[in-house]
Structures are given as C-alpha cells and as structure tokens.
Amino acid sequence: MINFILLQAEGAGGGILGQVFLFGSIILIMYFFMIRPQQKKQKETKNFLEEVKKGDNVVTIGGIHGKVNAVESDTITLELDKGFKIKIEKSAVSLDFTKRANGTK
Asked: Which spans are transmembrane here (predicted)?
C-alpha cells in the first residue's frame, strides 16, 4: 500500500516543468496585452504635454475646449472666449479628447 502511494506522488511531481511554462506564458501574455500598451500610451501622453504650444486647440479632462494662450512650466492658460482665460494644470489636458475634437486618431 505504501509503495502504491509513493508511486502516485512521483507521477504528480513530473508536471512542474509544464506548470512553469504555463505561468511563464501567462506573464508574457499579460505583459504584451496590458503592461506594454499602457507604457506606450503614457509615453505618448507625456510627449503631447511637452509639445503643447500657444495656439493649439485642446480639451481638458473635464471637457472644457479652449485655445492655448500661454504655456508655463506646469500650467497652461486657456482662452475660452475673447478675453476669458483660465489657468489649468498641464496634467488636466486630455490627449484622447483633444484628438477626437481635432478629428485625428
């Protein structure tokens, strides 16, 4: 009886290589479908915010459309109407909404 139990235990331990392969492939799939695209989007957004200049039409995260009037280090002054300006953080500008509003993808 003890020999039978030991033989079953040896057979179950042989699948370790398969389990390592399975977990490794799951990690790779997560990297290529979740982590890598997110890093690419963050890099694209960072580059967009660095390249914002006077005269660009932008949309904020809150949905405010305006034209950039001045760019400082971390803030942007938007002109919403003639003479009506607001100061916002650069991080409040949305790349996705700006692309949609300007008709580019």
From this structure: 12-33
